[in-house]
Amino acid sequence: MWNYMVQPKKEKGSMLIEAIVAISIFMVAFGSVLALNAQALHIVPQISKRLIASELAQEGVEIVRNHITTNAIRSKAFNDGINVDGYYPAFSDVSSEGPTVGVPCALGSCQTALFLPSGGQGNYTTNPLGKPTPFRRVVLIATGTHEVKVNSIVAWDNSIDLSTCMTSRDDCINIEDHLFDWQ
Questions:
Q1: In the chain, pLDDT over 90 holds for what percent of residues?
Q2: Where are the domains of the chain?
Q3: Does pTM top 0.85 for this prediction?
Q4: Is residue 167 predicted with pLDDT exceeding 80?
Q5: Per-residue buried b or exposed e for 87-102, using 16+ beta carbons within 10 Å of the residue's own CB
Q6: How far apart, in whole angstroms, are the C-alpha atoms of residue 14 and residue 2?
Q7: Is the pLDDT of residue 97 over 80?
Q8: Residue 183 CA neighbour count, 13 Å, CB half
Q9: What's residue 120's pLDDT?
């Protein structure tokens, strides 16, 4: 009777090759995870700065909106106090009346100095007390007959000029809004 079952020959070293292939696949996967983790650690601070800067930029627009609403409540012209085109410092908590818009200034001479946390409340001011942050904000206002165009610009790199934030950059945020005379 014929034996149709062929016994495979044992090949020496096949187990070693399989182990090397398995370890290689594991090392490539593990190396990819490590590279991704290293990249995430590098990106997280930038994302954090962009998030804080976007909130500060939005706050700059809200300060101007609050100023216009206050003008309406006090029966003043909607653009009273911001009726000159140009850059304005916008402060969160420098007066008892709340957020204020400063007087127009040239970009280089605006009070865009570093923001300082005030009293641990999360507000930002130019008050010289506290630890400075890298964020600077200025608000560009362009007025029309019944409209105010607001660009709130926040930067966090001291080497940049805020006027360059009008274009897309990685180290500053520019939020634009149009506010209208609704009365």
A1: 10
A2: 38-180
A3: no
A4: no
A5: bbbbbbebeeeebbbb
A6: 30
A7: no
A8: 12
A9: 47
